[in-house]
Automatic annotation (TrEMBL):
It is found in: Membrane. GO terms for cellular component: plasma membrane. Keywords: Glycoprotein, Leucine-rich repeat, Membrane, Receptor, Repeat, Signal, Transmembrane, Transmembrane helix. This is Leucine-rich repeat-containing N-terminal plant-type domain-containing protein. Residues 27-65 form the Leucine-rich repeat-containing N-terminal plant-type domain. Pfam families: LRR_1 (PF00560), LRRNT_2 (PF08263). Its main location: membrane. GO terms for molecular function: signaling receptor activity. Gene3D superfamilies: Ribonuclease Inhibitor. It is a single-pass type I membrane protein.
Amino acid sequence: MGLNRFSLPVVVVMMINAMLLSQGCLEEERIALLQIKTSLNLTSSPLLSWGKDALCCSWEGVTCSNSTTTRRVVEIHLYYTRDWSMGDWYLNASIFLPFQELKVLDLGANRIACCVANEGFERLSRLAKLEVLYLSLNNFNNSILSSMKGLSSLKYLNLDFNQLQGSIDTKGT
Ligand SMILES: *[C@@H]1O[C@H](CO)[C@@H](O)[C@H](O)[C@H]1NC(C)=O
Ligand SMILES: *[C@@H]1O[C@H](CO)[C@@H](O)[C@H](O)[C@H]1NC(C)=O
Ligand SMILES: *[C@@H]1O[C@H](CO)[C@@H](O)[C@H](O)[C@H]1NC(C)=O
Ligand SMILES: *[C@@H]1O[C@H](CO)[C@@H](O)[C@H](O)[C@H]1NC(C)=O
């Protein structure tokens, strides 16, 4: 049989489709990633390249599931993405709620002091798969601990190099 002269473009289109499917994430998640990028007020960072293409699973710091259907964002790494000269960051944790399959969130080294009123880390209790949270090298104080109580899927929390004081009771957290 052999390839007829119409096959090659068809194969190319199929390959491009497969590539887009394999590197794209859910539309809602792509929009949320771009909102995060905007809210960071970046001037220089690898994240500035987010949005240059639609292939959000290949964006710097983003990892998706290996699903054969729609790939979902499972890891977001924002370590040291923010310019510290902008002062403390009062974050709105709800910006991460579109990522319902999220397992790992790294917000280390961003000078986060905590949160916008009523938009703290207790919001992340709605992320049922969140297992790992890196918050090292920020400005959190002891008040962050109470907002972690509802995060029932959490297995690892790193709060090294913050402003926590005294002995910390980790029972029930
Ligand atoms: C970006 O700028 C806005 C407006 O000044 C501010 O509310 C917000 O906290 C800033 N974002 C970060 C990550 O500092
Ligand atoms: C997806 O599969 C690749 C190759 O097998 C593997 O290296 C990677 O860790 C997997 N990613 C996830 C999120 O499971
Ligand atoms: C926090 O972010 C969510 C999701 O983007 C938004 O709906 C909400 O209005 C924000 N809250 C504040 C206080 O800015
Ligand atoms: C802890 O941080 C929160 C949020 O930034 C702030 O409102 C509170 O005053 C701080 N508490 C202490 C004891 O510094």
